[in-house]
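Researcher: Here's my situation. A collaborator sent me these components and asked whether they could plausibly form a single complex. I don't have experimental data yet, so a predicted model of the whole assembly would be a useful starting point for our discussion.
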Amino acid sequence: MAQIGTETVEITLNGTDVTAPKQASLLKYLESKDIDIPSLCYHPSLGAIETCDTCIVKVNGEFVRSCSTELKNGDVVETYGSEVHEAQLIAMDRVMGNHELYCTVCDFNNGNCEIHNTVKEMRIDHQESPHSPKGHEIQRNAFYRYDPDQCILCGRCVEACQDLQVNETLLIDWTLERPKVIWDHGTTIDESSCVNCGHCSTVCPCNAMMEVGMEGEAGYLTGLLKDSFRPAVNVTKEVETGYNSLMVVSDVEAEMREDRIEKTKTVCTYCGVGCSFDVWTKGREILKVEPREEAPANGISTCVKGKFGWDFVNSEERLTKPLIRKGDSFVESTWEEALDLIESKFKDKIKEKGPDKLAFISSSKCTNEESYLMQKLARSVVGTNNIDNCSRYCQSPATMGLWRTVGHGGDSGSITDIAQSELVISIGSNTAESHPVLATRVKRAQKLHGQKVIVSDLRRNELAARADLFVQPNPSTDLIWLSGVTKYIIDQGWHDERFITEHVNDFDEYYKTLEKYTLDYTSEMTGMSKEELIEIAESIHKAKTTCILWAMGVTQKQGGSDTSTAISNLLLATGNYMKPGAGAYPLRGHNNVQGASDFGSMPDRFPGYEFVTDDEVRARYEKGWGTELPREPGLNNHEMVDYIHDGNLDMLYLKGEEMGIVDSNINYVQAAFEKLEFFVVQDIFFSKTCEFADVVLPASPSFEKDGTFVNTERRFQRLYQVFEPLEGSKPDWQIIMEIANRLGAGWDYEHPAEIMNEAASLAPLFAGVSYDRLEGYDSLQWPVNADGTDTPLLFTEGFPFPDGKARFYPVEWTEPVEFGEEYDIHVNNGRLLEHFHEGNMTYKSEGITMKTPEVFLEVSHELAEERGIEDGSFVRLTSPYGSVKVKALVTDRVYGKQVYLPMNDSGDGAINKLTSSYADKDTDTPAYKEASAKLEVLGEKGTSPMPKINHRYGNPQPQIGVGVEQKWARADYIFPGDLVKERRSKK
Amino acid sequence: MAKQTKVIHKMKIDPEVQRQRELKELENLLVENRELLEKLFDILNKLEDHEVLNMVKGGLAESDDILYRILTAVESSSASKSIKNALLMTQMLGRINMSELEPVILKLNNSVEIASEYEYRNRGKGWFGLIKTIRDPQFIEGINVLTQFVKGFGENADDLKKKFKVEDSISTMSDKAEGYELAKDDPKVDNKKSGSFKKTAAIAAGTGVLSVAAIAVPALFSKK
């Protein structure tokens, strides 16, 4: 879409000479000058679509659509005049012939209906062409519906689906007598490739494409009128004397809705992208999620979970009373009783055996403020550094790789940098399912702007299928090909010598370690062809900017930190740091993986990544908190499990983590839980981990509290309380404070803003962070200076090392875990688009569960043929650590003896029954992705685990845009400008 | 040492204790709002006396059916036309300058009175009477007033709309429609106006007819 640039042109606007930006679309420029031009198909996030013709103006005497017109020097622009007005009224007549104005009884009448508002602004009182039904059925599924009789065929939904989400499901069938929106060339929503991301309903200017949560709920009358709806509309049309008076009535009704519909900004908790949006609620009922253009990470984008996956908040399975173990069962208790017990147990243990017999695990799904308080409780109140969070399970190796080389453990830039990069390389990341909205930016850039995409993965995931180059190296050999490609680049003289000289140390030493990574060796070890390796090297060489994205396929290995380091080394060698559109992008998996560590839930670091062993830093915190602090690093959560088994750790307080399912080798972890002397678990549901607890505390999810998260871009965003905590539950920060005060802390925080102020005063990395600066959709990317200036591009002047230079860090390949010959199946694992982890939130959504009711094992066609497996066959996988039983799904997404087991099960299909306790040698992150098993077929026949209404069976129809040329070519279409000219010529 | 368990014993709440607690909460609410409740009950008693509550109860219980019946009846009868006319009349009333109409209305009333008197008491004056009347200064003045009234009717409707600051209603323009009047290229006006001359004239005529009606109807009623 056209953006306002810096170049200017001289034009005449309505008789006045003015200077205007050259790159701007005329419509955008006119809007900036407060000249109102109707525009119904134009959406700022989608650009010109050119279907509605309402934005017609005259340029140099000719009628043009202002949305798609770029200005040139000397242009004479007329936005007034009867001819222009007449052309706009012709366009509006066509729009209104397609859309029935029954605003007062319309659920979309909330002040934001663009048709309503345009009719009002143009003061249209009557329409010449009456609205008539199109004769097409309403389409609906569990999430949204499409009413063709209300559709103005603006094509926004199609543009969003084709070119923003790039799911390529929606089209307009322009060949029909009365065109309509269709799914996959004319099937139902559920049987199409639609992923229910919600873009279409978000961008629809009216009630044609609307969330079903709004139906019959938003308006005062919309739920009342059932059989009487049609007569009411007809009578209103009969008696109306003009739309203006009707608009007054519907505007009053819309104003009244403000009293009962709350619109609250929150931040999504389903991945690290950090989508923010308004949640529309009526009481505790969620009407819809409405993303907004100003949302810094996602704009108007969402995925199915963020848009429709919030039913769990009102689930009857929510915990509402503390539980206390009595023997082999729990009894519901009061908060007083539960806190009394925790107080006595903790106090006794600290007194008897010292604070290091206790450990604390914070959550990457909770807020920064809650992570801050958890580590403060551990360090300042209890007196131990045994505090960690679940980024240990995923992202610590990526952070380690970046600390070693560039000093900051965060993404180099923003999602917009990824979008503008010339080359994106994705390694071990199922991005389109794990970070769906971020993936849309890559897909869009590739489709519309020629971005090159290279994917390295074991599995043909969606981005792999779309990639310009897809490589499938042998498992756990990424470090080898990364090093081989780096060596080849340097050997060709394609490295950025100037950048290295000015900004990076230790080049020679590093280059020597690359010696063995010849093309022959690399090809032999990775199974990649030399041509593939050379193509990757050439692509990096030719691209002015390269971003490398990586995730668990890299980090959850024994050499996870080293491979992350190799990625950063490659970027340093090619000068792909310190400039927009380039850099390292470890894609954070949970909403606050970044923030949980940022705010000190780590055994060796305070908030802002300062070491607990640093006397000066510790003294600052001791002064700030008024207590003496432990100086030795504590246990990470991997070590905690071993310590429990060894009898060296007695008590654990864990919040918001399903450690009993998501840690690797869960049989071992669960056995450790059983050995704990006292175990406190804080969650919103009675999770598998809760089953081992002594006290379970009912917490509140993100919708029920204020706070901040830090997303994968290092971006602070505020979430506001959507509704009160469910009766009996409490926000985590309040629970932590109550426990701390039982232990004598004397904390008196009344709002999370006070906690943030305290954290910002102590951690220099966040010095300028405050709730005032994060008002609404405002955000800050760390480091944040005291004056509030932030750092969207992480490295501009240099790197955070004493001499300001980055460092090449030589690394060696680590051979993956050897399981033995009998374990011949390599078990890859990860996420699915529609479910979040073990699924205790997303399975609460009836719509999501209907489409994806259970976990399944993806099996290749080759393996299926070899073992006689079909869709629905029941199979058992057995590793040395346990076994799972699950239904199979035969697919070409995996090959050979590779299988893929999504992590969305907490029962017989739980992946971590197979994984080992081997871990990244530098960070103890479990090597989840180094898992092998043997496979037995338990039953050859069965129903497929994936219903036919799953989007994976769909048949996408890629095209660019909405195909407006087909509309223009129709015999019944005349450009309104031409029609006006013709009429005038007859005068 | 805790074995894995899913067994949860729900907290037993004594129903009697729960009831007592709720009764206490209700009692407090009543005491706090005593004055308001007294007024509310007073109103409710009056509504009950007039059967209003039962009517509302019945209406709400069958609201959709009732609404459906009413709306379909309105839709299929001339009632919708009546409602529309009533709404149009309301709009027209808004355009009449009642204060300036006052002397005209007085004169009209006077004329009606004289005409009535003639009709019932002094009939049969014939040509002689007519000639005599023509010479009457009041008749001559009356004709002068009527002449001015008719002159007013002859004025250009567009000029009148400007004079009285009346805005045209704006309609969309269909592909098939022909003969739209070209408006003047005055941005301030053009942005608001459109529509055909015929339509404008019809509105003006309608306004005139309704104005006369507005004068005559109250006059007739006042006579009775």
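Model: Some features of this prediction you could bring to your collaborator: The mean pLDDT of chain A is 95. The two ends of chain A are 39 Å apart (CA to CA).
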